[in-house]
């Protein structure tokens, strides 16, 4: 079975997207409801609690067959996805969109290594009841944790 991929531009750079955004002639008015697949430029500025509170700030450009993400200060790479959704990576952040309605419930996810303490046995002794641990220690281990936030877009005003 052949995978279907959304048309992409493999090498996106932040400056190219920001330059395209600056040249937008969109007619969107802030606060005006827009369809969840309307072509245009949309801004986002989300506080996210990923270990420490950081802000995700950038622009999404919705075209008829493509969605481009420009995250402030981070280069973004090409698309991957399925018939229903797709994602674009920007640094260690993954933006996920619905393929048909890209402005409906978009998310940003971040996976990080989180340290935790695990009790491990240092010394075992054989007893009549079986093997028994007689000395413990704690080791620092890491687990992968993914945190996801829902993005809220506002149309970019003409001339911005």
How is the topology of this model organized?
Layout: H1 14-22, E1 40-50, E2 52-62, E3 67-71, E4 76-81, E5 85-90, E6 93-98, E7 107-127, E8 130-150, E9 154-155
Antiparallel strand pairs: 1-2, 1-9, 2-3, 4-5, 5-6, 6-7, 7-8
What report would you give on this structure?
With 160 residues, the protein is mainly beta. It has one helix and nine strands. The chain has one helix spanning 14-22, and strands at residues 40-50, 52-62, 67-71, 76-81, 85-90, 93-98, 107-127, 130-150, 154-155. The strands form two sheets. It has a five-stranded antiparallel sheet with strand order 4-5-6-7-8, with no helix packed on it. The protein is elongated, with a radius of gyration of 23 Å. Mean pLDDT is 75; it is low at 1-32.
What profile does the largest beta sheet have? 5 strands, antiparallel
Helix percent band: under 10%
Strand content: over 45%
Query: CA-to-CA gap between the ends?
Result: 44 Å
Rg value: 23 Å
Strand order of the largest sheet: 4-5-6-7-8
Q: How would you spell out the order of helices and strands?
A: HEEEEEEEEE
Q: Helix segment count?
A: 1
SS elements, strand count: 9
The secondary-structure class comes to: mainly beta
Gross morphology is: elongated
Integer average pLDDT: 75
Q: Unreliable runs, pLDDT <50, ≥5 residues?
A: 1-32
């Amino acid at each position: 079975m052949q995978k279907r991929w959304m048309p992409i531009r493999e090498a996106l750079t932040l400056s190219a997207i920001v330059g395209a955004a600056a040249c937008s002639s969109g007619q969107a008015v802030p606060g005006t409801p827009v369809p969840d697949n309307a072509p245009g430029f949309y801004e986002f500025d989300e506080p996210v609690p990923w270990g420490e509170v950081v802000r995700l700030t950038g622009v999404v450009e919705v075209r008829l067959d493509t969605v481009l993400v420009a995250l402030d200060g981070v280069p973004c790479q090409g698309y991957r996805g399925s018939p229903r959704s797709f994602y674009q990576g920007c640094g260690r952040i993954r933006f996920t969109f619905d393929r048909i309605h890209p402005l409906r419930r978009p998310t940003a996810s971040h996976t990080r290594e989180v340290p935790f303490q695990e009790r491990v046995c240092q010394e075992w002794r054989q007893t009549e009841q079986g093997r028994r641990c007689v000395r413990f220690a704690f080791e620092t281990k890491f687990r992968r944790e993914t945190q996801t936030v829902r993005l809220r877009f506002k149309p970019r005003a003409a001339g911005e």
